[in-house]
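RETRY 2/3 - previous attempt timed out on the joint model. Re-submitting the same 268-residue input unchanged.
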Amino acid sequence: MSGQQGQASGPVSGPVSGPAPHAARGRHLLADFHGVAAALLGDAAALERELVEAARAAGARVLGAHFHHFGAGAGVTGVVMLSESHISIHSWPEHLYAALDIFMCGAARPELALRRLRAALAPASVRVHDVARG
Amino acid sequence: MSGQQGQASGPVSGPVSGPAPHAARGRHLLADFHGVAAALLGDAAALERELVEAARAAGARVLGAHFHHFGAGAGVTGVVMLSESHISIHSWPEHLYAALDIFMCGAARPELALRRLRAALAPASVRVHDVARG
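RETRY 2/3 succeeded.
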């Protein structure tokens, strides 16, 4: 992407200078969802289902999911662990707010997970930080 | 912080305009650790211990820890779930690299967790993104 060289000429033996392609390189999307339905933000089972589906939509492989519900009327903390890193959610139904992060390396496409989560949670507004990792 | 009003006058009935103080406000530190000893980056039990200690150093309450080792010579994916959000690590021993994120809301102090993890993992270089959430 931004690291691509403009030159297409030269030997075909592959890159010979500069940093090697890095298997650890990844993208980390931090997404603040405001204006989400409180009932959904307090439903740990539904959120787990949505995060797992989002991981699959991104082409990631799910290792496991761990969700904790803080009690009636309260929010949820959940993480879906991936071969490609993780997706997490922390929700505050009382603020109609959820903090998500989607971190994926390799060929998985975190923006597809984000798109699916936006569709599923239907926030009134979203702010995203897109951070290159590695 | 940045949302504070400059006015101290007016009735003492509390805030009546502008955004209310937000319990969901937090800090999310994304830390890239380069030049970490490969043996440590492949030691799931040691990394779990360090992340739990880092959470405690920050004043956070640990809900659980979930670590996955990708096999001999390979890295680790791990998450410590907190009442205040989470700490995660993804490691690549072959690159002497670990991607950490430390997300805490409330009174916990993520910078203290980061300080402890720097001391424990002794990276040759560190890059940190500090993102306000909420």
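The domain at 43-101+110-128 of chain B is CATH 3.60.90.10 (S-adenosylmethionine decarboxylase). Closing ticket.
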